[in-house]
Amino acid sequence: MCCDLKRRFLLLYATQKGQAKAIAEEIEQQAGAHGLEADMHCMSEMDKYNLEAEKDPVVIVISTTGTGDPPDTARKLVKKIQDKTLPPDHFAHLQYGLLGLGDSEYTFFCNGGKTVDRRLQELGAQRFYGTGLADDCVGLELVVDPWIDGLWLALKEAFLLQKEKGGMSASAVTNSLSSVPCEHKPDLTSKIQQLKLEEEGVRSSNVLSQKLIDVNLVTPAQDTEPSLVHSVPPISQSALNVPALPPEYIEVQFQDTRGEDPGLASLISEGAVFEVPVTKAVQLTREDAIKTVLLIELDISGTTFDYQPGDSFCVICPNNANEVEELLHVLGLSEKGEHFVCVKVKQGTKKKGAAHPQHIPERSTLKFILTWCLEIRAIPKKAFLRALVECTSDAGEKRRLQELCSRQGASDYTRFIREPNVCLLDLLRAFPSCRPSLNLLIEHLPKLQPRSYSVSSSNLFQPGKMCFVFSIVEFPAYPTRAVSWRGVCTGWLAELVGPLLHANKNSQDAKGGSPLTEKIPIFARPSCTFHLPADPSVPLMMVGPGTGISPFIGFLQHRQKLREERKDWGFGETWLFFGCRHQDRDYLFKQLRCFLESGTLTHLKVCFSRDLPAAEVTPPKYVQDMVRLYAKEVARILLKEGGYFYVCGDKKHMADGVSDAVVDILSAEMGADRLEAMKVLATLREAKRYLQDVWS
């Protein structure tokens, strides 16, 4: 490979939960094998790069958070490039390739990446490589892997064009191959063909040529179906393309048991953490309901915590104590749980830009790290599987792990790891000869993320109290998991409030005795938009089936209190569409009738999807069907009266259906085609009059 092609490119990433950073690190790591050097920075580190003066190609990896926002680490740059005074040729000198990460279950898929991509184009930047949009709903790797594969040739072509056009202007550099003078074309084409041959050579050198030759490794005749631990032809007999082994960069030193663990406030980067007691817990569903839904009331009176109806907040939750103990046992560290460990960057590591993980204390007990800092339930990424290969002594287990992280094993990875939510403990049970080191876990397991919940109360209606509602998440049993799992946070909360729930069942008093002594750590996550209209005379419609009703209870409580205190105010009509499976099992808030009787709620429309109809006419099953039933009222409120429309709940099975219903209603009422109606809905979203708080 020509030495003049060993060139630098700028690599920027913007991440919310670490995925974009991990992909950027993979690109950085592979760059060396292709004779390139990645100058990698987080997008927030604007003092370390300057796009206005950047001459080399720029590679961007950016995720999306919320309902379509760029990650927090991208906000400074996004704000800067959104400046309307910038001229259209501001980035005419810039060549870039962008990889966006998102989830198609959300309306604004990959919007973080699309926003940056669109704005760079508007400011004259040119793509040297096509934009990739990876979908976490089906597996990021389906787009990420081939996008990275194609990146190297695109970069080298970009460098080659720069060299061939060395004397040209910045804008000319970005022209296509067809604009190169004729006498240069044959030479340039031959060089690009040579690059392609070299790239194929690099890829083939990374192939792991390994066959199953040990008779003990052959899948038994009766196991003709693949599984997490077994493979079948063709993959079991294939040479494998496996990722490069990530260099280790963390060093862990065990110390004594003296000292104190850091406070939970150290687990978040900004804002205050409040540890608040539970004053009430109620099971809102019957025992025979498909899902168990709980309401928890917190006492925030002794804090400065504040909220508005429609806000969310985050709970800092621990990993399951039994799983932490099992992990310590499997790692052979049961006796070390209470020992303090000092975590440092390994001297002489080959990992470029290696830094101490921000979510890991420099000194704490091992149990604190495994309980509060690492997401031990995280689905292992392929780079982690590759690292686990080196910790596995059994040849058959080693081979299977290689298959699962290989290019050839992509479908097996999706089927046996991603879809069933396999975690590290599942792998260690399935591959008993795998014994990873503690530093490997710290390097590869992501941060244990706080869990977000919608507030289901009004501080005006219940001063000093805050309520929230949630379903207990259940994960089914798995071959390496004998019993079903509860969600990390919902399972912990349910166990925590168990005494109060038990007291409720044995007492006529719904409050069920004294508050719990154990407290829940929370911090604020205020919403910018999901609030009641500033003008109370504006009509509004709310759609919230199941636990999606949660924020609307706060809305109604707030409105009721305002109506009591502000007799002279005018209040617009309020609609609530609620749905659940069974009226007698999971109708979460039957006291909605009280809001209806007081006039706070003008219209309450409910539906029950699993109840058999009592009448000959089949009633609507789902809230989207109910919305269609009141098409004229929806159109009147949205098109004529400037009203607001709120949707909260499941994204895939409900929110999309509701938006489709609204589009159909607008189309019919306006006498316009569907495309025009979709534009109207987009305008309503832009005006913050069609608002969603949804989850997948």
Automatic annotation (TrEMBL):
Ranges of residues in domain Flavodoxin-like: 9-152
Reactions catalysed according to its record: 2 cob(II)alamin + A + 2 H2O + 2 H(+) = 2 aquacob(III)alamin + AH2
MF annotations from Gene Ontology: [methionine synthase] reductase (NADPH) activity; flavin adenine dinucleotide binding; FMN binding
Keywords: Amino-acid biosynthesis, Cytoplasm, FAD, Flavoprotein, FMN, Methionine biosynthesis, NADP, Oxidoreductase, Phosphoprotein, S-adenosyl-L-methionine
Tagged with keyword Flavoprotein: yes
Ranges where the FAD-binding FR-type domain occurs: 271-533
Gene Ontology cellular component annotations, sorted alphabetically: cytosol
Protein's name according to its UniProt entry: Methionine synthase reductase
Lineage of the organism: Eukaryota, Metazoa, Chordata, Craniata, Vertebrata
Gene name as annotated: Mtrr
